[in-house]
Each structure stands twice: as structure tokens, then as C-alpha cells.
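Whiteboard transcription, Tuesday session. T.W. wrote the C-alpha cells on the left side:
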């Protein structure tokens, strides 16, 4: 079923087996413009820009995922089931839930808790634990070590709510050791698990719910580059 309702590519080959998924489609364009060679755009539907190019000679794609689990749920499902994508790597930002997780840190979601109902579709007789692909996680940690970039690996929270009516709700997740909050990883991990493909979520800490600090645009750009350099090596 290609093109799909949300992705315009008319040939599977237009999209690489490994796709980086920043939330913001303009981030996808920035990555294509600044990190990739021989770039071709494969999507513009709904402004959700997608590009394929090469990085150090290896084919890789990058496309916006949009914000929230429904949005990344749609794009990742179509990439996996209709375009044969095997490795899906979210690159995004998160809010810190822990004193020791500082703004500008790079963190990797080994697991992704959620307050969303996404897993109910699987009709499981219990609670599912969405986790990263071990293969991608191990490789990312190895690459980070080689580059001398410190990464914190652990649990994250994929929340459906940015403006929470219960402002302290995050503290209960923090008490369970969850490092940071974002809004997409759990759906990505579940779609990948159900389809038997690989997913990973790498994040830079853009703000802290603990200290109320936030990064400047310039700082975000610098840490973003560190995260990107890890993600691009996973192609
Ligand atoms: N909440 C949810 N998503 C986020 C946040 C946050 O505080 N910061 C960056 N992404």
C-alpha cells in the first residue's frame, strides 16, 4: 500500500533500512542538509519532511515523527510495514526528572514507561514493558564510548501530557528511577516489538522539571550534534 496516507514515497527503495526520527520535520531537513550526502527528499505530505542520503557511504534516511505517541505511531508503522524499515532511531529532547540528570546530558531509553493507552490494542493480560533493541542500544553505547561522549542509559517516560493538570505527577515516576520525560518512545518501541524490528530512543536533556533550568537554543544545537553523531553511526 504505497504511497501510504502519510508518506509520499512511491518506491520502497526511496527509504533506507535505517531511519532517524527527530520530532521536528525541520530538524530532519537540517540533518539532511548538514550531515548527509547525495540527498533526495521522499516525503513532504503534511509538511513531515523525509530525506534519504548517505553518511560515511552508508544509506540512511531521516524523517520527522511529529509530537506524541499517535503521530510517531502512524509514521513508524508505515515505515516498518509498507517500506520495510528495520532500524528506527528516535532522536529528540526530554525533560529531566532526576537531580543527577543534567541539562545537556545525552540519555538513552533502555525502557520507556508510559501513561498512554497505546498498549491496550495488543489485549495483553498484564502490563507490557516497552524496551529498546539490545542490538542498537549496545552499538550506541559503544559508539558513545569511542567518541568520549558520556551517555546515561535507563528508563524514560513517554507521556501523553505536556501541560499536566497535576503538576507534580512526574514525581511518582521520578521515585521509580525514571530519568526523563518525552512523548514518543513507548509507541515506537511497541510498534517495533510487534513487527520484530529494532528501535532506539536517544535524547538530549533540554530542560529540568527538578531545577526548572532550560537550555538555550545554542546549547541545544551543540548537544544535538553529539547525539546525532552517535545516531548516524548506527546505519
Ligand atoms: N515533557 C515532555 N516532553 C518533553 C519535555 C517535557 O518536559 N521536555 C522536552 N520534551
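and on the right, the sequence the group agreed on:
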Amino acid at each position: 500500500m504505497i504511497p501510504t496516507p502519510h508518506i509520499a514515497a512511491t518506491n520502497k527503495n526511496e527509504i533506507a533500512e535505517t531511519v532517524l526520527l527527530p520530532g521536528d520535520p525541520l530538524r530532519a531537513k537540517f540533518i539532511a542538509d548538514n550531515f548527509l550526502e547525495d540527498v533526495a527528499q521522499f516525503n513532504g505530505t503534511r509538511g513531515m519532511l523525509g530525506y534519504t542520503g548517505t553518511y560515511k557511504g552508508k544509506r540512511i534516511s531521516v524523517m520527522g515523527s511529529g509530537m506524541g505517541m499517535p503521530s510517531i505511531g502512524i509514521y513508524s508503522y508505515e515505515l516498518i510495514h509498507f517500506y520495510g524499515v528495520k532500524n528506527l532511531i528516535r532522536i529528540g529532547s526530554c525533560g529531566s526528572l532526576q537531580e543527577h540528570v543534567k541539562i545537556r546530558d545525552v540519555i538513552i531509553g533502555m525502557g520507556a514507561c508510559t501513561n498512554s493507552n497505546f498498549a491496550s490494542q495488543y489485549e495483553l493480560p498484564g502490563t507490557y514493558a516497552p524496551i529498546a533493541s539490545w542490538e542498537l542500544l549496545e552499538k550506541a553505547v559503544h559508539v558513545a564510548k569511542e567518541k568520549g561522549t558520556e551517555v546515561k542509559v535507563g528508563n524514560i517516560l513517554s507521556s501523553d501530557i505536556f501541560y499536566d493538570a497535576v503538576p507534580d505527577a512526574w514525581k511518582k515516576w521520578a521515585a521509580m528511577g525514571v530519568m526523563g520525560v518525552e512523548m514518543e518512545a513507548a509507541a515506537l518501541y511497541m510498534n517495533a516489538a510487534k513487527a520484530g524490528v529494532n528501535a532506539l530512543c536517544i535524547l538530549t536533556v533540554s530542560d529540568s522539571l527538578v531545577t526548572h533550568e532550560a537550555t538555550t537554543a545554542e546549547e541545544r544545537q551543540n548537544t544535538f550534534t553529539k547525539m546525532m553523531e552517535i545516531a548516524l553511526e548506527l546505519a
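Someone added at the bottom: The chain has a mean pLDDT of 97.
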